[in-house]
Amino acid sequence: MPRRGIRQSHEVSIQIADFQSTYLPGDVIIGHVVAKKAFGHGPRTDQTVVKLRLFGRTKSKIVSGSQEKTYRGQAVLVDEEQCIFRGTVSANSKHSFAMTIPKTPQPGVAKTGDSWDKDERGLRGIDKDRNFLSNTQEDITKHSLPAVFYFGDSRALTGSVCEAFVEYFLEATLACPGVSDAKATLPLFIRSHSTEKPVDYNDYSFNVKSFQQITRSERLLPQNRDKKMTFRDKSKRLFTPSKVPSYSYRVSVATPPVIQLDHPAPVPFKVHVAPIMEQNKMICPDGDIRRLPPIELVSVDMELVALTRVRCPGTLGDHSRDKETTYRIPIDEPIALANYNIPVVVQGDLKGPGDEPRDLSERANEQTAPGGSPFLEPNSLHVAVEGAVVPEGLIKHSSFQPHEKGQYFLGTPLDLGNNLDVRLTETKSSSLGGRPTTFEKRLWPSFATYNIVLSYQLVWKLKISCVGEIHTTEGRANVNILPPSEAQGAGRQKIGQDAIKDYEHLTAALNFTSEVGGFLDLLSV
């Protein structure tokens, strides 16, 4: 499915002043339409018209291999034309223009493309951000203008093909009665607006998923911590589990709802353990969470999974195709050697001043509890309920009472993303101690339009160990991929118009590098 490429004819060309590698909605493009030679002939040359058109659209194509049928779809986003000169056109004449890129799809132009109703099929169990937009039932001026995009997928075994793209281009036309029109085209790489500065991930409510785990082992008791498990011990755990010490807890994973590409800070990925206190009386009779056995992180796997959805109109309804693409996030740091203990985070309340421990055994527990100090560690107490205030000064550990509706959280989650320095750009991912992984396909920001949707999920798998017992926890959460902030993108190099020799070559380069300077070498060959 061809895109509109670069065409500078013998009669006419387009020249842009201060040509940019990318443009934003709302930018004004200033330049000239150049007539390379006198255009038209005969008595009507004074009726020659020089026009400039800005056109933007989304196109989709689905080929059903089994039925050998092809379906195509299109949605026009922008179609704006200016008459910049009328009269006799002489050789080497320049005709100036100033074309403003709209900030939203233009009302009225949808009729030149296909009509797209709401996505009735949708995706079960997945939010609306992964559904198509409508240009018939919604106010399109409330939709964002999508950035330039390309997707292609073919399956050799079935012969099926799926292709979709978003494109924008300028088209200059010389028209004179009695003479064939002369045209020139120049594609524009329009990107979406981003935030002025890098986002603060702490401003967002994280997606939290919790998974209950139960560890059963004689090693949960302090006196058996180093005990070698016999066949009898293992059989007891299998046939009489109620007589084996158990530790019940929830592993909670918090992921950000947004990830910004090229962000100067690592991608946050927080993990903590919340013990189920009422079920842990056997191994923690005094309720002191410092006595609970540690839970170690053995390994972690992370991936970003893109879901590209494409649809085309058909006789009885829309035809659609969904395709997942995996972007690996390398975690090469030897997690086990790093000795990452997943911290315990418990919700609870503080006892009043009249509730201090009175008997000697309770005071003894304070002094001998693991961790040494009878006081809470600084900054380990956090507000869980709006309006609560963390007391100043030293707080005794024994004054904290676990309660599922308490005003405070005791403990701080482990930000594994920060510790492992997990980072994402448009072309690669990286982490501490590992080589950056270059993506086979460019990582485009999330967007949704009438016949194309691109959305993402962060997928993870954690392997944890408690007293030698291994458990696996895995899950996924929706995440919105934001383009680099304007501040991050401001330092990117500019590209001159003369560097653009071939549209396909430039697009291929964009698929493999986000640094404009990086693909200049590709274009110069």
From TrEMBL:
Residues 348-377 are annotated as: Disordered. Residues 352-365 have a biased composition (Basic and acidic residues). This is Arrestin-like N-terminal domain-containing protein.
